[in-house]
C-alpha cells in the first residue's frame, strides 16, 4: 500500500501571492493522488504538487490528499492555508522640512500591508495630481509650495493616513 514520506505543510501567505502544497509517497506503482479542499475533490488536482496562483480569501481552507494504489488508500494530514488580508500600516512617516527658496525637498512614506498598496499625496488637504508614489519630490520651491503635506494609503482591506508634514520655504 502507499506510504506518505512527506506530508503537506500549513501555509500562511498574503492575498494575491501564490502557494505550493507538496506531498511525497512510496509504494507499489502506479500511485494516484487526489487533492481535496475542505473535504471536496479538486478537479484535475492529481499530482504530487498543488499550486495555487493569485490566492484570495476564498482559497483560505484546509487541503489534503488521498493517495491510492492497487493495494490500499492513505490520506494525508490536513494542511491549513491562511490568507492574510492586512490593511495598510505606516512604517515611516513624512517629516517636516525647512528649505531655502529655490531649493528642493523630498517627502518619504513607507508602509506594510497586503499588496497592491496605492499612495496619494495631498497638499493642504487637496489631492496632488499624479503624486502616487512613496516619494513626493518638489523642486525649485517658492512660497506657494509652503503648505502641509500628507499621504493616504489604500488597499483592498483598508486605508491609512499619514501624519501631516509641514514645509516651510525660507526667503
Can you describe this structure?
The chain is an all-beta fold. It has strands at 3-6, 11-14, 19-22, 24-26, 32-37, 40-41, 49-52, 61-69, 72-75, 79-84, 89-92, 97-100, 105-108, 110-112, 118-123, 126-127, 135-138, 147-155, 158-161, 165-170. Strands 2, 5, 6, 8, 9 and 10 form a six-stranded mixed β-sheet that branches. Strand 5 and strand 6 (40-41) form a beta hairpin.
Keywords:
mainly beta; 171 residues; 0% helix; 6-stranded mixed sheet; rod-shaped; 20 strands
Summarize the structure.
The protein is mainly beta and 171 residues long. 0% of the residues lie in helices and 54% in strands.
Beta-strand residue percentage? over 45%
Average pLDDT across residues? 97
* Regions with little confidence, pLDDT below 50 for 5+ residues: none
Can you summarize the main beta sheet? 6 strands, mixed
> What is the helix content?
under 10%
**What structural class results from the helix and strand content?**
mainly beta
N-to-C order of helices and strands: EEEEEEEEEEEEEEEEEEEE
Number of helices: 0
Report the span from N to C terminus. Answer: 85 Å
Taking Cα atoms only, what radius of gyration do you get, to the nearest Å? Answer: 26 Å
Q: Total strand count, please?
A: 20
Shape: rod-shaped
Amino acid at each position: 500500500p502507499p506510504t506518505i514520506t512527506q506530508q503537506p505543510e500549513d501555509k500562511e501567505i498574503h492575498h494575491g501571492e501564490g502557494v505550493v502544497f507538496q506531498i511525497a509517497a512510496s509504494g507499489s506503482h502506479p500511485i494516484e493522488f487526489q487533492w481535496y479542499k475542505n473535504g471536496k475533490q479538486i478537479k484535475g488536482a492529481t499530482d504530487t504538487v498543488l499550486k495555487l496562483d493569485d490566492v484570495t480569501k476564498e482559497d483560505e481552507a484546509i487541503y489534503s490528499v488521498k493517495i491510492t494504489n492497487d493495494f490500499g488508500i492513505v490520506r494525508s494530514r490536513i494542511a491549513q492555508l491562511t490568507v492574510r488580508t492586512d490593511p495598510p500600516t505606516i512604517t515611516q512617516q513624512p517629516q517636516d522640512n525647512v528649505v531655502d527658496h529655490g531649493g528642493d525637498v523630498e517627502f518619504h512614506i513607507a508602509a506594510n500591508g497586503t499588496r497592491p498598496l496605492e499612495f496619494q499625496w495631498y497638499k493642504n488637504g487637496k489631492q496632488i495630481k499624479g503624486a502616487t508614489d512613496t516619494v513626493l519630490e518638489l523642486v525649485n520651491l517658492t512660497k506657494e509650495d509652503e503648505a502641509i503635506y500628507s499621504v493616504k494609503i489604500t488597499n483592498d482591506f483598508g486605508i491609512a493616513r499619514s501624519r501631516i508634514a509641514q514645509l516651510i520655504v525660507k526667503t
